[in-house]
Amino acid sequence: MAAQRPDNLHSRLVAWLKIVLPLAALAVLSTLFLVARTINPDDAIPYAEVDVEGLVREPRITAPTWAGITSDGAALSVEAAEARPGQTAGEEGRAAALRARLETPDGAVASLVAATGSLDGEARLLRLGGGVELETSTGYHLTTEAMTAGLDETDVRSVGALEATGPVGRIDAGSMRLSEDPEAPGSYVLTFGNRVKLVYDPTK
Question: Quick check: pTM over 0.85?
Fold first, then answer.
């Protein structure tokens, strides 16, 4: 009996593979479709909801910043969570969640936090309201309803009564001012006035 030729085996093997491989591929694809997770439309990335009409009606700026140098060399920087420009001529813009930082040439720092604020360009003032906190690098912490800070010169003032704590104890006063010492240019003083009450704390 004659031996089977190798080329016949090869031809038969190729013929079988042409049948088996497509069937195997179909089986794999069927399995993938069976186990595939159903897509939930609710899992889609949500689109941001933007009130276009509201933005047109009340334009606003997100995370605005302002910085400047006063005539005496102090650096004043202001930032807010949001600001809205005035809607009519002469109307001041308003800012929310406002933070300000004043660095004087002698190395002192005063940080202010307020719920609301505005820049009065005509009066060259930063107005802070809605409850204001001021903290100085010299150890004073003050709370009051409103404050103003000069944009052209270092002049921070409370608008009304305040409560404070400092190196000497607790202070209640009707007014406060942080400004350059007129008798020592380049130095800055924090002064209290209008019925000042000091509760001395010897532990401080």
Answer: no
